[in-house]
Amino acid sequence: MDRARLQHLLDRETAEAARRGPRSRDAYGRAEHLFGRVPMTWMNKTAGPFPRYLATARGARVTDIDGQEYIDFCLGDTGAMAGHSPRVVAEAVQRRFADLGGATAMLPTEDAEWVGAELTRRFGLARWSFSLTATDANRWAIRLARAVTGRPKILVNAYSYHGSVDESLVVVGPDGAGAPRPGNVGAPCDVTLTSRVAEFNDLDRLERELAHGDVAAVLMEPALTNIGIVLPEPGYLAGVRELTRAHGTLLINDETHTFSAGPGGCTAAWGLEPDLLTIGKAIGGGVPAGAYGLSADLASRLLGRADLDLVDMGGVGGTLAGNALSVAATRATLEHVLTDAAFTHMTALSERFESGVRAAVGTHALPWSVTRLGARTEYRFADPAPRTGAESAAAADTALEDFLHLYLANRGILLTPFHNMALMCPDTTARDVDTHTAVFGEALAELTA
Ligand code: PMP
């Protein structure tokens, strides 16, 4: 890679992004009452001089306040995997919120049992409870796992992401021991007091860590998706299940992103048998919603424990969790939008996206790898594809990533910030994918000219 050429192209695309976004630039400049000038600090993670401000979004299309239209492969980093504002979800929201009234009344609605039954059909877990975010689903699953096992620690894979869950911000340090994830903000205590860590695909390490007998649960994605996609090697997930069972440790599958693998995520696609499963983002069709599922046995063990306050102040739940509005939106999304048929369409398009990227990378002989998980494709600046989180983290190249994001955005295509990741929604078309393939090919041609 010619770094001087890359820098020149990045500067050119940055200037072009600034030129294309005068209104966004002004709005950002005026946002003096926001911490970091944005509603949420991670919105500053944008390739370019300022974030684009949202005007409208429908299906696989987004427009910004400067009137630019984009094919959206970011899809709210999975929150809009159902497409932006699907009509049927909008109607369900309208019905619940405006026609019937009552978004949050501390009373159950009948939609919740429908959603619970559908989640059981898809993922296999027998009992369900709701949250508003995947982070909270993970937090509450962890608390339940600690309560039922009486053990203090949680094990996660290095460079996984499970939301702002204190226990999960741990990596394997240079000396091989657990260490805080660099940059972690305000940890409540030394993370090694609460957590153990293993690299993804490393069963030997997992076995050594579980042998301490103090791990309540392994919290993991069946494939890492937040440090590039890192797929499980043959036998790895079966090994995880065998080891967790052997050591009396519960297994929590976080399917928030791996839901892209199919209607029942990796759990159904690969026949996995977790004790708990967490999910958020996509299931509400854009309305905040999350959920966690438990095996029937685990649920009855927990409900039988008179010492656990599962109803009031015990630390599991939130006032707005399971509210009528988010449950109505989740029902509409699962019943009508992210259906089995939709996944077939999305996966076929993702295959098309993958072949396009693979062909362009091949044409320009770049040492990159392309990985796909159902409806989600990601490329990484390393070949062969990284097999652990640490290897994938080492393949990061911010300037190169920023150049590609900006080149695409300046030509009407959005990828997910933090990733070279593209997700398909039910409204994505083959033409959208082919547009990406063409523009991506032009970017690589300029890069390697
Ligand atoms: N789990 C996984 C696998 C995620 O990717 C994320 C967010 N990227 C979360 C949990 C947290 O989701 P949220 O920020 O919506 O709580």
TrEMBL record:
<dbReference type="Pfam" id="PF00202">
    <property type="entry name" value="Aminotran_3"/>
</dbReference>
<protein>
    <submittedName>
        <fullName>Transaminase</fullName>
    </submittedName>
</protein>
<dbReference type="GO" id="GO:0008483">
    <property type="term" value="F:transaminase activity"/>
</dbReference>
<keyword id="KW-0663">Pyridoxal phosphate</keyword>
<dbReference type="InterPro" id="IPR015424">
    <property type="entry name" value="PyrdxlP-dep_Trfase"/>
</dbReference>
<comment type="similarity">
    <text>Belongs to the class-III pyridoxal-phosphate-dependent aminotransferase family.</text>
</comment>
<dbReference type="InterPro" id="IPR015421">
    <property type="entry name" value="PyrdxlP-dep_Trfase_major"/>
</dbReference>
<dbReference type="InterPro" id="IPR005814">
    <property type="entry name" value="Aminotrans_3"/>
</dbReference>
<dbReference type="InterPro" id="IPR015422">
    <property type="entry name" value="PyrdxlP-dep_Trfase_small"/>
</dbReference>
